[in-house]
Amino acid sequence: MTTTLTQPLTSRFTRRPDAPHPVTRHPFVAAAGRFGPNWYAAVMGTAIVANGAHVLPGVASTAWAQVWAQAFWALGFAGLVVLAGTRLVGRLHHARVRPLDDPSVAVFLGCPPMALMAVGFGALGAGEPLLGHGLALALDAVLWTLGTVYGLWAAGTVLYRLAMHYDVARADAAPTWLLPVVAPMVSAALGPALIPHLPVGQAQLTMLFACIAMFGLSLVAVLMLLPTLFARLAHDGPLPPALIPTLFLVLGPLGQSVTAVTQFAAHGPAALGAPLGGFALLYGVPVFGFALLWLAVAGAATVHGLRKGMPFAMTWWAYTFPVGTCVTGAAGLYARTGLTAFAVVQVALYVLLVSAWAVAAVRTARALPTFLRG
Known about the structure:
This protein is mainly α. It has a single domain (27-373), classed as Voltage-dependent anion channel (Glycosyltransferase, Alpha/alpha barrel), CATH 1.50.10. Helix content is 68%, strand content 0%. The protein has helices spanning 27-32, 40-54, 63-93, 103-106, 111-124, 128-131, 133-164, 178-190, 202-235, 251-267, 273-307, 321-337, 340-373. It holds the Pfam family SLAC1. Residues 1-21 are annotated as: Disordered. It is a multi-pass membrane protein. InterPro entries: SLAC1/Mae1/Ssu1/TehA, Sulfite_efflux_TDT, Voltage-dep_anion_channel_sf. This is TDT family transporter.
């Protein structure tokens, strides 16, 4: 990836000589065709700013915090709609190109479902005053369902192709491989918010255990991939400069899994309260500790990369959503324990999240005109 934002991804999305209709030669259609699935990372990063603000301790009820969260949720929702429409138009230009044909593109198919669910979850939080409860609930239910189905398909399909079809070496491994398998973890973490709105009994239990199953599915897949990724780092040298920000993607399954277990405890039936609450702490605290360790490692790698002239690319959005999952994870642990330390860490991580979002957004806006011109 370079300052053209999506290289080398878009270098593979070139119009085939035999593409038929003249409309595909229209400049707008051609420009739309340059947007790959990795662009949904910007929507994810924007939505998590709203979701993180909504759970900040002590300020979520203040007027300025509500306006702040609502503004970012609206921006994320607008970005999702615009990007989905742009990608749909772009398919006219690349009608015969399939993202699954290339492993470096296929892994980013995990981004669209996570963007859908992050915006949907925000509808029940920051977006509810804007939409009203009924519309917010319906939007979250629809986007969570679409994102879950999409995410499960992406996780299974990309894993299968990595194992059976793609010709990849260990040196090709990158943290982006985690994107498809983290999507079900997002389903697991954000699905419990819908449990109180389901009929008591079988419906609520089915939703809870479906989320727990997706938690396990994603966690085992991540644990399967992480040794390969670390072996690549340890034995094949550092990542290319433009991929250094993707080291932050490791935080995604860590923070999101902590968020998930605390949400299970918060929204599970009363009969399961004690076991789920105990598991939330026994799992959440140690994993959150490792997340902070990896944050330091990835942060040091970023500083080293910047000193070596690391270029801007869309991978810089990896500094947003994964950090945001740690914000929501810390919020869940604070809610379970009441420990001030978790509140302090949560606020500090949120400041880091907003700073990263501002840098990524400004740099993207600056590079966008050049990108659209091709």
